[in-house]
Amino acid sequence: MSGQYGSLPFDEAIRFFRGKDLVPTDRWADVWKEEHDVGFMVAGAAKADLLADLHGAVLKGVSKGTTLAEFRKDFDAIVARHGWTGWKGEATAAGRAWRTRLIYDTNLRTAYQAGRWAQVQAGKQWRPYLEYKHSDLSAHPRPLHVSWDGLVMAVDDPWVQTHWPPNGWGCKCRMFALAERDLRRMGKTGPDTPPDDGSYDWTDKVTGEVHRVPNGIDPGWDYAPGASRTDLMRKEIERKVAKLPAGIGRQLKEEVLSPRITSKDLDELIRLGNLKTDALIGKAGTASEDFRAALREVLQTEVGTQTAAAVTPYGSNGSKAKRLLEEASRQFPDSWTRKADAFGKLYGRYSEARALHMTLIGDYRGQMLDLKRQGFGVMPGDVNAGYIRCHDPFSAVHELAHRLQSAMPELDGLFQALHRRRTNGDPLRRLKDLKPDLAYGRDERAREDHYIDPYFGKEYDGRGALEVLTMAFETVLAPRDAVSFTRLLVRDRELFNLVIGVLFHYVP
Predict the structure, then answer these.
(1) Contact (Cβ atoms closer than 8 angstroms) between residue 269 and residue 414
(2) Rounded to an integer, what distance in angstroms lies between the CA atom of residue 507 and that of residue 232?
(3) Where would I find the Phage head morphogenesis domain in this sequence (predicted)?
(4) What pLDDT does residue 475 have?
(5) What pLDDT is attached to residue 2?
(6) How far apart are the first and last CA of the chain?
(7) What percent of the chain has pLDDT over 70?
C-alpha cells in the first residue's frame, strides 16, 4: 500500500506527511490523537537524526509507493547506523516483522486518510455524504466495524469526526463520498441516524489519565487524521479577519477558506456533462423540445426538481412574477433552490421593462437607491435579500440563475474559470459595437470569445463575467428559440457540457 493507492496521484497525503515535525518519544501514547497531525513519532525513538531517517524511509512509501519489504531494508540499515537498541520487537524475527509493519502501515494509512479528509472537505458541496465501508482484507474483523459497513452519514456529522478511519491498529476501513443521486440509488432519502454503540474508559497506566473512547475504536484513534490542521487554519484566519477592515477581511476569508475551483474540477464536470449529453441525445435526439423534455425527466429522477422557490410577490402584478419564478426554479436541482431560499428572502416583480436581479450584500445603501429607481419603491433592507423583475419564462430563468449565482458563488466560480481560460488576453469591447442593433449602454463591455452571443462574455467591474452562467442556463433550460439552443449544443459543446455537468453533479 502506498500514498498513491494504486495509480491515483495523491498529493494531499504526501503534503500531510511532509508537514510533520519530528517528535522524540519514549512510548506510543506520548503523542495523542490530533497531535499526530503535526508530529511524526516512532515509539522509543528519541534522537532527532534517527527520527529524521525513519521519517524519510516512510516518506518514500507515501510519495513513491515503495513496498513494505523495501521499508524493512531501510529500517534495518537505519537501526544499525544509529545503534538503536531496546525497541519493542527487536529480539525476534517475528517481533521485527510486526514492528516494521506497524510503523509502515500506520503512517501510510493515516497519511492516506488525512489526504482523503482534505479532498472530502474541499468537495463536500458536491458530495455531502459519506458511506462507511469495512474492508474484506481484515484478517480479524472487528464486529462493530462490520456493523458500520454501509452506514451513510453527512460529511459534517460529529460521528464522522470520531469514526473516520483508521479506527484502530491495523484497521483497513474506508469512507467514500456520495452525492444526492447516490443516496437515491441506494433507496435512501437522507443520511442514516448515527448508531449509539456506547463507550468505554481507557486509563493511561503511566500518567493515570482516563480517556473516554467510543466502543469499537482503539484508544487514541477516535479522531479524523488531518482534520485538526484544517480547524487550526480556520481559527487562525478567523482571528486575523477580526482585526482587518470588513471588506479586506471578507476577501481574505473567501480566498483562504472557500473551496477552490481548479481546472481539474472544471474539466471533470465538463467530461461528466459530455457523457450525460451524449446519453440524452441518444434518448431524445438534438431537437430543442425533445432534448429538454428528456433532460427534465432525467433530472427529476436522478437529482430532484420539484422544489419551488419561496417568492414574495411585489406590486400589483407580483403574483405573475411569483408564478414565473416558481416555475423557473423547478428547472433547477432541489438542493440549489433550498440553498437560495436559506440564503435570504426573494421578492418578485412583474414588468415588461428590461429584466433585472439584485441581491443586497455588504453595504447596500446605494443598491437600495438603485432598486427604488427600478420600480421597487421602498423595500425591506434584509441582508442577502434578492429582488427580481421579470416578464416571461426566459427572463425568469435568467434572473433566477443570477440569484443562484449570489447564493452559490462556488458554482459561478466554475463558469468564471472557464471564461478566464477561454478569453485570456482577449480585449474588452463595447457591446454596442459588437451588436449595434441592440440598445446596450455605452459602459457595457464584453470579451467576445467564440460565444454564440457576445453578451455571454459581458463583464462587470470587479465582479467578472456574470452572464456566462445565466445565459448558458437560459439557453439550455428555457431558450427563446430553438436556434439558440442548437447553436450552443453544436458550436459551444464545452459550455453546454458544463451546464449539464453541474446540473447533475454539483451539490451546494
Answers:
(1) yes
(2) 26
(3) 54-175
(4) 97
(5) 37
(6) 33
(7) 79
State the pLDDT confidence band at 309, using cuts at 50, 70 and 90: very high
Q: What is the pLDDT of residue 265?
A: 78
DSSP 299-342: HHHHT---PPP-EEEESTTHHHHHHHHHHHHTTS-HHHHHHHHH
> CA 295, CA 276: separation in Å to the nearest integer?
9
Give tens-digit pLDDT for 110-135.
888 887 887 787 777 778 899 999 98
Residue 475, exposed/middle/buried by CB under 10 A (0-12, 13-18, 19+)?
buried
Residue 326 amino acid letter: E
Q: Could you read off the pLDDT of 435-472 as tens digits, one per residue?
A: 888 777 778 888 888 899 999 999 887 678 899 999 99
Label residue 367 exposed, middle or buried (CB < 10 Å: 0-12, 13-18, 19+): middle
On whether the CB atoms of residues 496 and 416 are closer than 8 A, the answer is no
Strand pairing of 346-350 and 386-390?
Answer: parallel
Q: Is the peptide bond before 409 cis (omega within 30 degrees of 0)?
A: no
What are the beta bridge partners of residue 312? 347
- Residues 6+ away with beta carbon under 8 Å from 45: 24, 25, 51, 54, 84, 87
| Lookup result for grid cell 516483522 | 97
Phi and psi at 390, nearest 5°, equal -145, 170
Residue 250 is inside which H or E element, if any?
helix 246-257
Least confident piece of the model among 260-274, 294-308, 373-387, 405-419: 373-387
Q: For residue 68, give the C-alpha cell.
A: 513494505
Write the burial class of residue 458 (CB in 10 Å: 0-12 exposed, 13-18 middle, 19+ buried): buried
Residue indicated by cell numbers 450525460 = 276
Closest CA to 474 of 426, 423, 387, 415: 415
How is residue 25 written as a grid cell? 518519544
C-alpha–C-alpha distance, residues 250 and 128, integer Å: 25
Say whether pTM exceeds 0.85: no
Measured CA to CA, the distance from residue 494 to residue 450 in angstroms comes to 11
* Domain ranges (residues) in the chain: 1-122, 127-225, 263-505
CA 17/CA 40 separation, integer angstroms = 8
Nearest to 223 by CA among 31, 21, 13: 31
In angstroms, the Cα distances linking 356 to 172, 388, 400 are 54, 6, 10
pLDDT at position 27 is: 59
How many residues belong to the chain? Answer: 508
Query: Which residues are CB-neighbours of 354 under 8 A, at least 6 positions away?
Result: none
Q: Indicate the residue type of 343.
A: F
Contacts of 256 (CB under 8 A, 6+ apart): 233, 237
Residue 450 near residue 444 (C-beta atoms within 8 A): no
Phi-psi region of 180 (alpha: psi -120 to 50; beta: other; left: phi over 0): alpha
